[in-house]
Amino acid sequence: MESRDKILVLENSLKYLSRNLVFPKKEQDVGKEFYLKFAALSFSTIMFLVGSILHLAVNIKRKTYINLDLDLALAISLTGSYYFNFSYLKQIKNTIEIYKKLSDFQSFGAPDDFHVTNGKLNRIAKYHYVYIISAVCGLCIAPWLEYEKCTEENLELHIEEVCGLIGGMWLPVDLDQVPYKQLLYFFQVYSSGGTVEHLILRFKHVKRIFLDALRRNSRGQFKEAVQYHVTVTEMADMVNSSFNMCMFVHVLLTGAILGCVGYRLIKSYSLGAICLFIGWFVSMVMVCFSGQRLREESVSIGDAIYKSDWLTLNKDLERDLVLVLMRCQKPVFLRSGPFGYMSYATILTVGNAGICVSENVLKTSYSYLTLLSRTS
């Protein structure tokens, strides 16, 4: 029997997080040392954020508006990343508890497809890690590929933008002098540097136990399935308590970033802008896809029970069945604050910045593009 305190899910994801100092090597090691390492890693990259915001402010003050679109996208992206990191840190113990509950196979047994699904998610984690590294490499290589273009713009527009950096940066030093420029470039490279799927698997397992209890006309097994259903629903509530506001900020910022980066791509080709665009968009699609599947799987339990041969059940079990059907009519969501929940529809409504959540992402992005074009 496996210990209830041992995490058996998403091993690769947790290994990569641990490697980057954002998850403890052992789930019991959430102490002062872990928090200090996390804080040191986060604050060691703060100059990139400060420099980007200062660059944006200086350009606005000078009324040059050079690369305003990318400055906005980077400032928003970095600010959002810091929020995600510290929000995650605040909920780290709750997150570990979720993983422990998902790894508990003593109480209700293991889902039939656990090993297959967990193995699949571990492989996807590897692919996703490679994808992230590739995107970071693209952001790092792009400035050097576009170095000549940047110098030509400086001569043509009579400006003094520093070429060869991942994003615009202003600091009270001459960034074109050695070693500032080289140090900042590598500093920025350093800075750049399926819980829901397991819930879905658990809901599938709950459905199988419910149907098995109905097939056997066993009220005892049915009560066990009800208890299991309540436990999995509580796990979903824990996930929402950990990630609800992160999802809200993710939705809020993605539209703004897509709008700014989209404007840059309309003006001219930019490898860095493409990497930023793909990174945020793919991240949003992945989360929305899982959120949609979670909703559908939680509702499918009631549908499967309704389609079963419930007319042959004993009276006591029929009464229990009515209560379960009423509960299953309320879907389980991956929530995103005031925006509601993550689903396919969220992809169309993302990035509204709180103005009107019913408009789709194309309209929202277009509003950002229009604003930027008027200031150019």
TrEMBL record:
InterPro entries: 7tm6_olfct_rcpt. GO terms for molecular function: odorant binding; olfactory receptor activity. Keywords: Cell membrane, Membrane, Olfaction, Receptor, Sensory transduction, Transducer, Transmembrane, Transmembrane helix. It is a multi-pass membrane protein. It is found in: Cell membrane. The keyword Oxidoreductase does not apply. It comes from Exocentrus adspersus. Belongs to the insect chemoreceptor superfamily. Heteromeric odorant receptor channel (TC 1.A.69) family. Its main location: membrane. The chain crosses the membrane at residues 34-58, 64-84, 127-145, 183-201, 245-265, 271-289. GO terms for cellular component: plasma membrane. One of its GO terms (biological process) is signal transduction. This is Odorant receptor.
